[in-house]
UniProtKB/TrEMBL annotation:
GO terms for biological process: protoporphyrinogen IX biosynthetic process. InterPro entries: UROD/MetE-like_sf, Uroporphyrinogen_deCO2ase_HemE, Uroporphyrinogen_deCOase. It comes from Corynebacterium amycolatum. Pathway: Porphyrin-containing compound metabolism; protoporphyrin-IX biosynthesis; coproporphyrinogen-III from 5-aminolevulinate: step 4/4. HAMAP family: URO_D. This is Uroporphyrinogen decarboxylase. GO terms for cellular component: cytosol. Substrate binds at residues 34-38, 83, 159, 214, 348. Its EC number is 4.1.1.37. Catalyzes the decarboxylation of four acetate groups of uroporphyrinogen-III to yield coproporphyrinogen-III. GO terms for molecular function: uroporphyrinogen decarboxylase activity.
Length: 369
């Protein structure tokens, strides 16, 4: 059943929302990070003559690309087709997404003057994204959630400071450690932009949000807690009133799972390196420490993950085995009370050369497990 309040749908039968809130879903929900994109021939076709960033500001096109994997794979959620740098682009920051590389800035942001010059983003500037969300919601049925997203301040800061994709994030870490005050100024500038991007999507009616701190795993826990966590926490708090599940994810964040859980999400995404039952245990141990004496239910989160994207190349038998292992690790964590639910996903995004049929088959296997 769908009950509409303004733009927000109240979905009573969406497996993803049930899993996120610790209710029993009608089937094990699954979606894949980067499920839209190069693995799909229909995506390559519609993107043929249009730049990546252009396509993020065309409502019909972004809605079409968002829906393609939902139609093809029967996943339980759509992820908005956009990018973490879209709010920067919308606000007028000079950057591009270079094919095969990623976001590249015309001028890196490294000084107080550079930070001061960063604009804020307005609702009008994000209107094409909101319009696209409206179109997507007309097409989804009442079991399929639309997930909105944003990049977290650390990951965005890395692109701004390095000027593009970075292997070691050395300039970012150098700024953090050599001039913590300047770092805080940058974080204070990026955080409201992230909140505005999420609020624009929430206002347009997304059913859940995911905050990607993709590169946070490069940090020590100590640096993460000092330089990153306060800002991610501020973002989760700022969107709490939407009353929709909030997911947090980063790559290689096994050592940070507890600290990232403190930021305040309902769901923690886990990459493929840590078994889900181990991840759940780490999360619960940290949250129990934080909430000492409070409602024990607050100490566990739902889990999202965590099939290695490379396994989609390994054939059906290997895929089935790995999916079953992951589901049983998640179920064990739920049974122990270490986790509230399980949303199946990859441990990071679909790799560009993945066979689309392998993705469809994986979804069938997951739904049957
Ligand atoms: O189905 C989907 O998930 C598509 C929507 C989507 C999302 C959620 C895109 C489209 N980008 C993102 C988020 C995003 N963008 C993240 C966080 C998720 C993750 O860790 O993968 C990050 C780090 C980016 C930055 C980015 N944009 C990169 C990574 C570069 C690096 O540093 O290694 C790249 C390659 C892009 C471009 C991009 N974004 C999306 C697509 C389909 C593409 C490739 C487009 C093209 O070149 O044509």
């Amino acid at each position: 059943m769908i009950v509409r309040m303004n733009n927000r749908r109240t979905l009573t039968d969406a497996p993803i929302l049930d899993a996120a809130y610790g209710r029993t879903p009608s089937r094990r929900p699954v979606w894949f990070m980067r499920q839209a994109g190069r693995s799909l021939p229909e995506y390559r076709e519609v993107r043929k003559d249009i730049g990546m960033l252009d396509s993020c500001f065309r409502p019909e096109l972004l809605a079409e690309i968002t829906m393609q994997p939902v139609r093809r794979h029967d996943v339980d959620a759509a992820i908005l087709f956009s990018d973490i740098v879209v709010p920067l682009k919308a606000a007028g920051v000079n950057l591009d997404i270079v094919p095969g590389r990623g976001p590249v800035m015309d001028t890196p942001v490294r000084s107080e003057a550079d930070i001061k010059a960063l604009p804020e983003v307005t609702e009008e500037q994000l209107a094409p994204v909101a319009e696209g969300i409206g179109l997507i919601l007309q097409e989804l049925n009442d079991t399929q959630a639309l997930i909105g997203f944003a990049g977290a301040p650390f990951t965005l800061a890395s692109y701004l400071i390095e000027g593009g994709p970075s292997r070691n994030h050395e300039r970012t870490k150098a700024l953090m450690h050599s001039d913590p005050e300047l770092w805080d100024h940058l974080m204070q500038k990026i955080t409201p932009m992230v909140i505005a991007f999420l609020r624009a999507q929430i206002g347009a009616g997304v059913d859940a949000i995911q905050l990607f701190d993709s590169w946070a795993g490069y940090l020590t826990e100590r640096d993460y807690r000092r330089f990153v966590l306060p800002y991610s926490k501020e973002i989760f708090q700022a969107v709490a009133d939407a009353g929709i599940p909030r997911i947090h994810f980063g790559v290689g964040t096994g050592e940070l799972l507890g600290a990232m859980a403190e930021a305040g999400p309902e769901v923690m995404g886990v990459d493929w390196r840590v078994p889900l039952d181990v991840a759940a245990n780490r999360i619960r141990a940290t949250l129990s420490d934080v909430h000492r004496g409070a409602d024990p239910a607050e100490n566990s989160l739902a889990l999202q993950g965590n099939l290695d994207p490379a396994i989609l190349f390994a054939g059906e038998d290997a895929m089935t085995q790995e999916i079953q292992r992951i589901c049983s690790e998640a179920d064990r964590a739920i049974k122990r009370g270490d986790a509230r639910g399980h949303i199946f996903n990859l441990g990071h995004g679909v790799l560009p050369n993945t066979d689309a049929d392998a993705i469809t088959r994986a979804v069938e296997i997951i739904h049957a497990t």
